[in-house]
Amino acid sequence: MHQPSRRLDLSSQQDTVLVCAVATILIIRLQLWITNYPQLGGGRLHIAHLLWGGLLMLIAVGLLLSYHGPKVRRAGAVLGGIGFGFFVDELGKFITSDNDYFFKPAAGVIYAVFVALFFFTRSLRRRRELTPSEALVDAADLLSEAALHDLDAREQQRALELLDRADQSDPLVAPLRRLLGEVQCLPARPPGRLTRAARWIRGHYYRLIEERWFPSALRILFFLLGLFSVIQVLGLVFNVLVVAKGGNPSISISEALDSFDDVSLYGWLNVASAVLGAVLLWIGIVRLGESRLSGYVWIERSLLVSICLTQVFVFIESQFTAVFGLAVEVVLLVTVRSMIRAEHKLAANQEAPPPAVEPAPAPVTAAPVERAPKAAAPS
């Protein structure tokens, strides 16, 4: 079965949708909390913001089906993400019999939905490299921007690179290459304010992690996090014991152990994810003394377990206030991955053979000049 071709800007548009959806949910919850949860409409009439989400997603679909151009795609991604945020925010109403918007596990379910979407979008990107046919389709799509007078020099170069990856025997490759060479393109656009701000932050961040004191500070931080993870696991085990004892502190531990069947699957999964994250974290802390790269890799695995599994239960317990702890873990994950890249670069530089030193040329000396014999003096 022939699979549809993936777009060249697949990753950026997917990220736009997810970021806009998450930001919409957080803004909605914050706005409702500040205004004490007002109701739009009067009497028996209530306009749920799910309807606004559906309207925005419909507008996004209409734009994408009706118009050409990268600006339209970006607008569709933004409106679609905002609409999906409005839609999924009301999930609690549709998984409960009493339409409870404040259903406590709803935050965890919403968080799990976004985790699943994140991994799904990443699977589309990592499935394989662009095939020759996909490269040809994306090059032709970039060329179509010339008709909109929106093709710049950077996009022209990218289209030429895509044509190099296409099947050179395809009859469309040569005409497209010729057209790209003849078309008048715009100069490369300067980066916008957001892009410049992101680059400024990233530049300062990379300079920070290259400081000599930073790895030591990071190890101290992870050691403290390891202690906190042990305390967290002990607290969860204590809560499970309290549940098993039925809230009666007079019941012995052995009787509580016999009552473990009363503990819900949610409680066991919560403890299991916390234990797994703590074990991986401590393996990473111990490995840091042997190999920084190995320690960082294990710590990265611990953070991924916490973000993808443990945070689901944290959102169920703490609702959307758990976003602050999630933000800290995301920053730590980005930091650890940057340190891993730095360690790989350092290892590659150490393994690279030193540049061959050419022998210095021998000094040039002047050849001795043979002097003609002096003529004999006349007698």
What does this structure look like?
69% of the residues lie in helices and 0% in strands. With 379 residues, the chain is mainly alpha-helical. It has three domains: 8-35 and 48-127, no CATH class; 130-189; 207-348, no CATH class. Helix 10 packs antiparallel against helix 12 (265-288). It is globular. The model has no long low-confidence stretch (mean pLDDT 79).
Order of helices and strands: HHHHHHHHHHHHHH
The first-to-last residue Cα distance is: 114 Å
**Percentage of residues in strands:** under 5%
Mean pLDDT: 79
| Fraction of residues in H or I helices | 55-70%
Radius of gyration (Å) = 32 Å
What gross morphology would you assign? globular
The number of distinct helices, counting runs of at least 4 residues, comes to 14
Major sheet: none
**Strand-pairing-aware structural class:** mainly alpha
- The poorly predicted ranges are none
Task: Write down how many β-strands occur, each being a DSSP E stretch of 2 or more residues.
Answer: 0
Provide the number of structural domains.
Answer: 3
